[in-house]
Known about the structure:
The chain contains 2 helices and 7 strands; from the N terminus they run ββαββαβββ. The chain is mainly beta. It has a single domain (about 1-115), classed as 2,3-Dihydroxybiphenyl 1,2-Dioxygenase, domain 1. A 4-stranded mixed beta sheet has the order 4-7-6-5, with helices on one face. It has a 3-stranded antiparallel beta sheet with strand order 1-2-3. InterPro entries: Glyas_Bleomycin-R_OHBP_Dase (IPR029068), Glyas_Fos-R_dOase_dom (IPR004360), VOC_core (IPR037523). GO terms for molecular function: lyase activity. Pfam families: Glyoxalase (PF00903). Keywords: Lyase.
Amino acid sequence: xxxxxxxxxxxxxxxxxxxxxxxxxxxxxxxxxxxxxxxxxxxxxxxxxxxxxxxxxxxxxxxxxxxxxxxxxxxxxxxxxxxxxxxxxxxxxxxxxxxxxxxxxxxxxxxxxxxxxxxx
Length: 120
């Protein structure tokens, strides 16, 4: 069920947020899992697993999750330098965005100085 929608004229995309029917009220306050669908307004050729925009998940502690993923061999393609957003890719190349729930966390090393790796 759709719980929110945001259009970005500048970025030329629309974000649509979905939640399971039993989680709609909690999802509206960002206390339950959401699925973010991204619609890019301009035509794009998707390849390498990007046969759509990407998936996005809210996480409780972006630094802790990225560290856990990194410790288990997952490449952090776009590190959470800003304490708010990171990207990884699934084994089949799907781009996955990780978003800090609530306000961004304060910048923290080693993340704040890490460069991007590969594509995200």
